[in-house]
Amino acid sequence: MKKFYLFFLCLPLSGVWGAPKVDPTFSEDLPVDMQPFYLKHYDPQRRMPYYKKDPRGERVIEHGWIYNTTEDDDGYEGSSAGRSSIRPMPVQDIDIKEVRSYFSLLTSVLSTPLSFAASLFTGVHSDRRTRVLETESFPWCVCGQLSMSFLDDSGSVTHIYLGSGALVGPRHVLTAAHNLWMPELQKDSSGPRYITFHPGRNEERDPWRSRGEKYVIHSDFIKQNTDEEKQASNLALIKIDKPLGERFGFLDLSFVQPGDLTTINITGYPGEKNGQMYTMAGELKGVNGGQLFYDVDTSAGQSGSPVWIQKDHKYICIGIHTMGRKTDRFNSGTYLTPEHLKTLQSWIKEI
User: For residue 215, is it within any domain?
Assistant: First the structure.
């Protein structure tokens, strides 16, 4: 009995099986790669939690929300633009000191987030969206939140932009082009320096976070001059570093005639919902100029959400949500035409 009690009393002193002590504070005298940032994990064999140091470059992306939108753009911080070439996504080490000062600024700006969140809603009626609770089951798990980090010439974070996207291949995420290209934020035309994809996220639970490796944007998006022409090709594809689609599936890419479309679904991550997934089914009102128009409520952060239907036991992505309206006009997205589908298939093979 004495040995038992001695072991019990000594256990907290040595830590639980060598698990590092979690210290959430920031130490100015430590180098960046030694800062005490840890992620909580669960070991099913030992049936206990443990903590593992967060990899460099992935520790601060998902919470830096900039509450600032354009009038019709259902995304944070940006306007429509594009890029036609494939862009590699190198791992970027982010200076924690710079990030801390950046988030301090965000905290002061977001002193009244609830009142602001109400102004973000862009639906034609009161909010009719439904929160998805089973985010890790199919088909919900293929939908995810995107975060794009923009850095200045010194390598410091200047903007973090949130959007939505969906898996359409083993390692391929479909989203809106304007989520990835913002001329006012990228003087050197390099695009976002860091992209993360969070499929099946449910608030703080983020089971399959992945890093973007490459992306490509439809060339017509940057070439066209009018907003209507741009919205008809407002699509982009991101290649991530994990084959998540092989693990739990992805949306089918097939052309569906407008006459066969009545009710459509939009699933994504409204920025004001703090990492919660929302979905809504609504009536398709029309197809015109390569755009879908629908009676579905959306808000900032849902740009890039899949417009999808269920047909013949398949979940088919027929479009990409791109625009939310603050007037009585219907919300809209880019229609995946046969030409777009052919382009996407070539991208999937190419990148």
Answer: yes
pLDDT digits (tens, 9 = 90+) for 122-158: 444 578 999 999 999 999 999 999 999 887 777 777 7
Q: Which domain holds residue 43?
A: 20-54
Give the residues across from 335 on adjacent strands: 319
The pair of three-digit structure tokens given for residue 133, joined into one six-digit string: 């609770």
DSSP assignment string, 7-70: HHHHHHHH-STTPPPP--S--TTS-GGGS--EEEEEETTTTEEEEEEPPTT-SSGGG-------
In total, how many domains does the chain have?
A: 2
Q: What is the pLDDT of residues 215-224, one digit of tens each?
A: 999 888 878 7
CB hemisphere CA count around 58 (13 angstroms): 17
Q: Do 80 and 179 share a domain, yes or no?
A: yes
User: Do residue 43 and residue 82 come from a single domain?
Assistant: no
For position 129, which CATH number holds? 2.40.10.10
On whether residue 288 sits in a domain, the answer given is yes
- pTM of the full structure: 0.68
Do residues 127 and 33 both lie within one domain? no
pLDDT at 106 exceeding the cut of 60: no
**Whole-angstrom Cα distance, residue 197 to residue 165?**
8
Nearest Cα residue to 291 out of 215, 226, 236, 230 = 230
